[in-house]
Write a structure and sequence with these properties.
single chain; about 140 residues; mainly beta; 8-stranded antiparallel β-sheet; globular
Amino acid sequence: MAERTFPFSTYKTYLYKGATKLIDIKDFTEPLSPREILDTTVASSDERTFMPGIRERSKIEFTCNYVKGTSASVTGFKDLKDIEDAHTPATYSIRFGDNGVDGIFTFNAYLSVSLKRGGVNEVVEMVITLFPTSAVTFT
């Protein structure tokens, strides 16, 4: 499939751990944050000037449908909790389109999983939180 040259939806967006799809996701927060702004204005200038600083690193969250996760064919809460309890960073990626044809954001991170609050007539959901230990790269 060729790279798209027009806007597209989040359909076929995947969360991977290494080379394997980890779980189906419903939404995600920003994988890259904007750079901080450094003020370079001098006292002799009548206008402010700026330069880019470093990126403020933040957690990346993914909402997923809750499943218990004891089946070999479905990743669920138990499987994610096992990853969390290992206390070991791994390589994760957000892939857009089949095989990442529309872009891949890759980074190393620790994983944490939690159950999302629920209400009447709502789908039970869980939240995966990734705490990056490396810069996010884009390919």
